[in-house]
Amino acid sequence: MKQYETVIGLEVHVELATKTKIFCGCSTEFGGAPNTHTCPVCTGMPGSLPVLNKKVVEFALKAGLAANCQIHQYCKFDRKNYFYPDNPQNYQISQLYLPICHDGWVEIETSAGKKKIRIHEMHMEEDAGKLIHDEWEDCSLVDYNRSGVPLIEIVSEPDMRSSEEVIAYLEKLRCMMQYLGVSDCKLQEGSMRADVNLSVREVGAEEFGTRTEMKNLNSFKAIARAIEGERERQIELIKEGKAVTQETRRWDDNKEYSYAMRSKEDAKDYRYFPDPDLPPIHISDAWIEEIKAEQPELREVKQARYQEEYGLPAYDAGILTESRHLAVLFEETAAIYGNAKKTANWFMGEVLRLTKDKAMDPEQVSFSPKHLADLLVMVEKSEVSPQNAKKVFEKVFAEDIDPVAYIEEHGLKIVEDTGLLEETINRILDANPGPLSELLGGKDKVMGFFVGQIMKEMKGKANPASARETLMKEVEKRK
Amino acid sequence: MAKIIDDETMENVCILAKLSLSEEEKEKAKAQMQKMLDYVEKLDELDTSEVEPMSHIFQDENVFREDVVTNGDNKEAMLANAPKAKEGQYQVPKTIG
Amino acid sequence: MELEKLTALQLGEKIKQRQVSVLDGVKTVFEQIEKQDSEVHAYLDTYREEAYKRAEEVQKGIEDGTYTSLLAGVPIAIKDNICINGKKTTCASKILENFMPQYNAEVIDRLEKAGLVIIGKTNMDEFAMGSTTETSAYGITRNPWNLEHVPGGSSGGSCAAVAAGETYLALGSDTGGSIRQPSSYCGVTGIKPTYGTVSRYGLVAYASSLDQIGPVGKDVADCAALLEIIAGHDEKDSTSMKREDLQCSKELTGDIKGMKFGVPEEYLAEGLDPEVKASFMGVLDTLKELGAEVEFFSIKTMEYMIPAYYIIASAEASSNLERFDGVKYGFRATEYEGLHDMYKKTRTAGFGEEVKRRIMLGSFVLSSGYYDAYYLKALRTKALIKKEFDQAFGKYDVLLAPASPFTAPKIGESLKDPLAMYLGDIYTVAVNLCGLPGITVPCGKDSKGLPIGIQMIGDCFMEKKILRAAHAYETSRGSFAVPGEGGTR
């Protein structure tokens, strides 16, 4: 039996989180009625001209530097010419000859250990519009709201060998982009998309096999399935003695099969040439230094710091830094509260549980760190029971309520009302003569039963320690 | 020797340029392009091995805009010239079959 | 008073003095249009009603001090590749037969701010591709000096309109000589400014690295005044330059003593019409008489200019014209099967022959396998040409060249042999390749009575020098007859 190896390279498109499009002052906001975020530039009107958004260059530099890339300090935009209605000029402004970033790498970690994935280049380009297929009239409709939204395309070397590595690589990129604040990388909104270049070869072979490119992959699961499907298809062909054709294929995730996107009109000759409308970009050493100085702490560094500074286990530090957004919430809460370890426990428990239960993206979590810190302080001072604190936190998590006021209003605060406590205890003792006689007889194990009853009656407003203390006193009186 | 423009090249050029020519037009276009290419072949006399291609005349300064939204909803104006539109979108023949 | 014989500045001055109303000037122009344009066909569209209304507004604006420009109230015609909000902008192409931009070109905003009155859109070669205005999809324009001849191109409508007195001023665009050559054929003055001087925003692109909008007028002073209005930095055009050195009127002193003129000797070799040459040599004498130094020198890249130009211009055009596809605006074929057939039928029916020729050539030179051999080679050649001009401007203030090897050809003669027509651009294309400013001034007539123009070329940003030189020559030359009358201006 021959063994085959899969060789995978990725082209990942990441939409940059700028306020405006790459070449015009239209909003990049997601959603919005069709064509409401358009202007002559991003609809390709005659006579319109592009002007580059500086933020796009900054974001591309941030991403490139984080991925250990070299920078082309003199770089240009090129036109990629092809006719398609989502591309209003029928050329896409992109970079071929001098991409802004090149020759970098990122490190991924899989069950097999750590591995470097080399990055061939990162370039800036504009996104296309959206096509909707109108089955009713058998036509397509074009919305240019996304046309001109800035992208960086990250092209890897063919360094990946499995879908596990591919997913790890994508998660790495996503995490990095989110940490840098250059993209939210939401696959479902298309702000992160991957094209998979895949070939197979016999294990030990020197040469790469013929590769295919798969498009239309919009979730990690779809990517994993597409890789498995395409690998099988290619191996099947090779086994049958047939050749793999170099082509672009479209993955249909429902049918779990890819289809060749073949057309006589698809000349695949993009006639790239430098865009005469956009002067070259000069990136000075000073600019690069400035960007470097502004780079946020990336995940690996943060993870190490949490272990060192907060004394968190590696596992916890890993979980807490998965999303930069959550990590920032964590750090801010810990800073206000003053106890990182306890804050971490709360995050590892409650925050992650609720995020998961509500099927939320970590980026969507939004509550004031102050509110959680206040709540934690109350727990520490035994002003609220841990059970009630968890319930209150659900409110903080969902509506960002002020926990101090809420606990007050809903009478959840533990009150040192000894009269009420004594009265409650005596009522319970009277109602349970059996267990009481056991207790009087010196059987301490019924203590737990009584404390539980008391707490229940007090609806959590009593402090278990003082409940126990008062109970002892009252029992003593009855001896 | 300049490139010889054959039928296949013409065919390819028409696909790239999205033009369809009649046989007669194709022959004429072929001959004219051939003549033009034979003429521009003159450039081969020049030794340009040490010369950088000059894509832009002036290229000293960076030209950027700030990331500030300046455009509002221009939908009506943008669609005003559309040969076919439907529900605020440009209507085109079906793009996937 | 024969208002049609005034220059734009003279009209502007009389308006300012309240000797003439803005409306008088506008009416004069429309009278001339009425009288002549059925024959000349300089215009594709005119806005009589609106121009009359605008004239009243501008009149008030001049009176209350809103408009202070020297050209406030002066009528102007616009080449039809420059967008005006709500006005048909066709580029003389069927593919844009019904296109109405919803935005103004930057130059239009500037003209309006200065209080000029736009009277209509002028004819041109389709998408500015051509040297005769015969490739227009909406009929040819005739040369007002002799209706059997072409006005030149591609800004043939603008130049013919000025020559015929159908406007005082016009805007043209110049990619390879499209202002300077028709100005020469029509006996008017036209400037191609330094690349980046006038915003290209709203100019429908032919070849983006070469295109510039420029003024066409009756004399140097008119063109200089108009240039001051339209020039300036525009944030919407990334190739637009910040220039604060275009207050040119004070350059027009007539004094060119000690100025150094260079004449490329290759420009006077074979192919130059003897009558054009004689007229050109006459200019050299005049300049010497004015105290200038005139010297011959050699430009070795001359024979490579046209090849480099046509490769670069066609390549850019093939890309710039991709957006005309029947999806967003303009013409769409009525019957088609599927998307790509719609593209092909639309573009095949929408573009004329010359445009298709250049799109095909451009697509070819950029295509895989030929990019290096043709397109990059042309860009390298451009660098060599630029270097040679840089060296020349190390020695000379202004270079002199004919505007065209011949005077206006007869209608119907040029398009038979496209390559021969391209060769006619020999004296103009280098200016665009190198981003230089150039001006054409009438310098004589041939035996058929057709005007001859001389071209003065400056180094980048040296508009002042060519304006000074052109004005001094013009002053010394004296008045230049108006077509059909033999009278003087």
UniProtKB/TrEMBL annotation, chain B:
Reaction(s) catalysed by this chain's protein: L-aspartyl-tRNA(Asn) + L-glutamine + ATP + H2O = L-asparaginyl-tRNA(Asn) + L-glutamate + ADP + phosphate + 2 H(+); L-glutamyl-tRNA(Gln) + L-glutamine + ATP + H2O = L-glutaminyl-tRNA(Gln) + L-glutamate + ADP + phosphate + H(+)
InterPro entries: Asp/Glu-ADT_sf_sub_c (IPR036113), GatC (IPR003837)
Enzyme Commission code: 6.3.5.-
Signal peptide residues on this chain, from the entry's feature table: none
Keywords: ATP-binding, Ligase, Nucleotide-binding, Protein biosynthesis
Recorded superkingdom: Bacteria
Enzyme class: ligase
Function: Allows the formation of correctly charged Asn-tRNA(Asn) or Gln-tRNA(Gln) through the transamidation of misacylated Asp-tRNA(Asn) or Glu-tRNA(Gln) in organisms which lack either or both of asparaginyl-tRNA or glutaminyl-tRNA synthetases. The reaction takes place in the presence of glutamine and ATP through an activated phospho-Asp-tRNA(Asn) or phospho-Glu-tRNA(Gln).
HAMAP family: GatC
Classification via NCBIfam families: gatC (TIGR00135)
Known partners and oligomeric status: Heterotrimer of A, B and C subunits.
Family: Belongs to the GatC family.
Protein name (Swiss-Prot/TrEMBL): Aspartyl/glutamyl-tRNA(Asn/Gln) amidotransferase subunit C
Organism: Blautia difficilis
Gene that specifies this protein: gatC
